[in-house]
Amino acid sequence: MPVFLFELEEYVNSYFKDPYSELKTLFRYHLGLEDASSKQGKHIRPLLTLMSCAGTGSDWQKAIPAAVSIELIHHFSLIHDDIEDNGLLRRGKDAVWVKWGLPQGLNAGDAMFASAFRKLIDLKKNVSDSITLDAVELLSDTCQRLTQGQYLDIDFENRPVVSVKEYLSMVRGKTAALISCSTKMGALIGGYIQEEQCKYEDFGEALGVAFQIYDDWLGIWGDHEVTGKSVTSDIVDGKKSLPILLGLEKSSQFASRFAQGEIAQNEAIIMAKWLQEDGIEKSVTDIYTSWTEKAFLALEKMSCAVGVKTALEELANKLLIRKK
Amino acid sequence: MPVFLFELEEYVNSYFKDPYSELKTLFRYHLGLEDASSKQGKHIRPLLTLMSCAGTGSDWQKAIPAAVSIELIHHFSLIHDDIEDNGLLRRGKDAVWVKWGLPQGLNAGDAMFASAFRKLIDLKKNVSDSITLDAVELLSDTCQRLTQGQYLDIDFENRPVVSVKEYLSMVRGKTAALISCSTKMGALIGGYIQEEQCKYEDFGEALGVAFQIYDDWLGIWGDHEVTGKSVTSDIVDGKKSLPILLGLEKSSQFASRFAQGEIAQNEAIIMAKWLQEDGIEKSVTDIYTSWTEKAFLALEKMSCAVGVKTALEELANKLLIRKK
Fold it and tell me: What pTM was computed for the model?
């Protein structure tokens, strides 16, 4: 993604005008643009936008402003997430709010949010004003969904019971909204009509939900060498992930121990086994499978250049079957 | 402003779709839409937008979506400000983050930020796509300036010395950016060319800076029955307002006591007198006067329907000469 990364860095470097503000430094730090060794994440969302635009047969470079914008929205949400979840580390280094304090961290997230909308307007150089406005509408609707999902995620922490329906509503907002925005955005910029855009959106939506469920699975049964987290960490953290909320509903041994709080690593390993014995892991895998099937079915239905469709299939496979 | 308020409330009530999210409640609480007795603020910014649009001779109702959007941006910034400044109360009741916790407060601000951009797109029903896009660009540039100003405001707290130049840079971002956006937005929607829009912007900019300097003056010498704060409260709070940073630079008795920290109310009264003796109050008043003159001069230069110009002059007088 050298063109995308070049654009992102150029934009961040030229964005700030005030000589007294150091916000650029905070942006560069969080985005991993400080030096060649910084970790930058996988850029899945901008990749999906550029590929989706290419899938329509249009020049993918037209979608670069949108790809940059979507990546910035993703990162704004991470900066604020870290504050909301009290997350101290992000990609192995101090979170922005830890390094610069909560007020500056919060404000840097706001600044990044604003920068994303500003970048999106550059689309008008490549497509019509009408499509550019549709893109702004799509992005702001996506941010609405993101914040609704985030509301639920925070709310779940203090609730004893969360239904699968509520969980899916949360995941659709928190994770799937921006991924489906990425694919739909590409189709929109490529000039596809609403009906075709929705097929790209459906693919992104199902991909996003499946991705999150898989992540939840990894949070308990994943190989820590791959995930970078300790195995069973979601049980130790008391996170309301899908296996855990199903466990609370359907495994009485799991539920009664979980309710007592303060779970050590060695206990979490036993509790993860209870979830398997009581059929929870199978339920999670079944739900996961149904969403991956939805994703590949949606991909199948998309009007998409053959080579691009194959590439999207490969990307989806890479995302969804990381280790199992 | 009954039409504006009706639109704002209608928008907030219809905005959220997710059945599980309670964000609407947080919005209504913060915006004072809960019941008739709730305080809602003065709606200065949307008023300026609607009046500026009327000033061009165009139908002011065209600008309603922008007025709603700007008011939402103002309130998003207040929600986040309260977290950043550790402000517990907002208009006499608990701040959102105090009532719902920091994570939900932060997220509600993000949601309001997104809702503002979504609302702005409704402009396209009233004006061309090109003007609507210019409005989105203006709003996102304004948010850039807002967050730069906020960066400086937070930064100043931990710095021993702040220059007047830096202070003005902060105020232009934190206060004047959204006020100048309000006036420029009205001119833009009214169909004025760039050159004329800039005159409206200049008026809002000077009005905003003067407004903030006056607020700083009130924070030390104001009548607490008018401001609702205790007199000299900025000295007690150790805030880097204009009189204080000038005092730090030019009044040695003030500076040496200020540096020791922990200032009681009765001491603050003495320190406020030192600022007067050492000519600081005069300097503040002089700077204030030069900005009010700039504002009225800019207003003079604006191509603006006579009745509206008189109304804008009255509003400016009300804002700037509240008590002196």
Answer: 0.95
